[in-house]
């Protein structure tokens, strides 16, 4: 009996490649035959953003992609600004911070002390851009003529669009706007009213043409196994209601979906349950959820966050990073299981200019540990970074092996939401250094910090000084062109 079972298993494993070759788009079979790269492999495409970000939403306008996301900090209640990353190729991203909303300027006698979370941005029929965002566990709506702003409260009296637990005591977070084929806009939001329960409720309502008021009363549209982060997708007349279930702070967090014939349901749970969950093969992609979707080159992609692999904060203050992977919808309308990857599944992009820092020899004043070491500062992988053991001052240098000419340096600091104090020096012998940029008094935030200055040198060094704002001295990437 044992020999017979072993023979069956051998035949099964031998036949998998043949089966896969006949059905290359079957992601269930890909679980068996497609191997992901290690989390610290050079040039990994996931995470896509150099920093701690969560709750992404993405739009495309005039050939530019804009990804808005929560800027994770040690305390989620301390998030005061809204970040937006822009890109023309979905590989190279630039982070800036919007003029609105600013947490310190938001005044509401019904809100809580929580930070700025979970944006949803759409382009309305009037050509303006609308942002639905959670601030102090209330939902506000902003309006702008351009994706980068300037933004302002879309309501003339500056009040929240939805106050804390205003309707049916449903938690007022994670608003998501969906615009149907006929131009009608809908708003979805909700979660659990208790931190101990993962059984949430979801409300939905039609928006008026002004996009900042309701046309009727909200209704309960809760699908099976809903906790938070609703997202609506329509394809071939079917509404795909997607959402997160599980606890946001552990491995149970996942994306599920249900289908219906109207924006309000009723809903039939999808065949794949869950649709997206942490990758058990690597043990490093966990707590995947709060997603958005976009289409690129005729393929559907899911954008989601997961716990980063570098930090072990308290359970309520995990830091997250954003990844992109393909989501396949079969001809019969079913969504296939998404495999979360380090490698990424977007088509590869060939940069116009060669990054001269990649492959250079790296030295530092110190490394925090083996997980945050020198060689990660130029590996073109946003899942790894260098962090200094020293907290007051530190340096990292690149040795190009020979004297080279370059005109631009890009530095992706660990926390784009903070300003960093730094200088850049060059040298030909590694002993005598020449200052090419002095940013000791820098107050700029965002990523990367860009220095456009022509230089010719064998060595480049970045010196960091503690300015009492960032958590520590760290850099995701240094790129040189």
Structure overview:
The chain has 481 residues and is mainly beta. It folds into two domains: 288 residues, Tachylectin-2, Chain A (5 Propeller); 120 residues, Sandwich (Jelly Rolls), CATH 2.60.120.260. Helices cover 6% and strands 37% of the residues. The protein is built from two helices and 26 strands. Strands 20, 21, 22, 23, 24, 25 and 26 form a seven-stranded antiparallel beta sheet that branches. A four-stranded antiparallel beta sheet has the order 1-2-3-4, with no helix packed on it. A hairpin with a 2-residue loop joins strand 1 and strand 2. The N terminus is likely disordered.
What would you say the CATH architecture of the largest domain is?
A: 5 Propeller
Report the count of strand segments: 26
Number of domains: 2
CATH class of the largest domain: Mainly Beta
Low-confidence stretches: 1-20
Strand fraction equals: 35-45%
CATH homology superfamily name of the largest domain? Glycosyl hydrolase domain, family 43
Tell me, briefly, the overall form. Answer: globular
The radius of gyration over CA amounts to: 24 Å
The biggest beta sheet reads:
7 strands, antiparallel
Number of helices: 2
Rounded mean pLDDT is 91
Order of helices and strands: HHEEEEEEEEEEEEEEEEEEEEEEEEEE
CATH topology of the largest domain: Tachylectin-2, Chain A
Alpha-beta content class? mainly beta
- Separation of the first and last Cα atoms: 64 Å
The share of residues in helices is under 10%
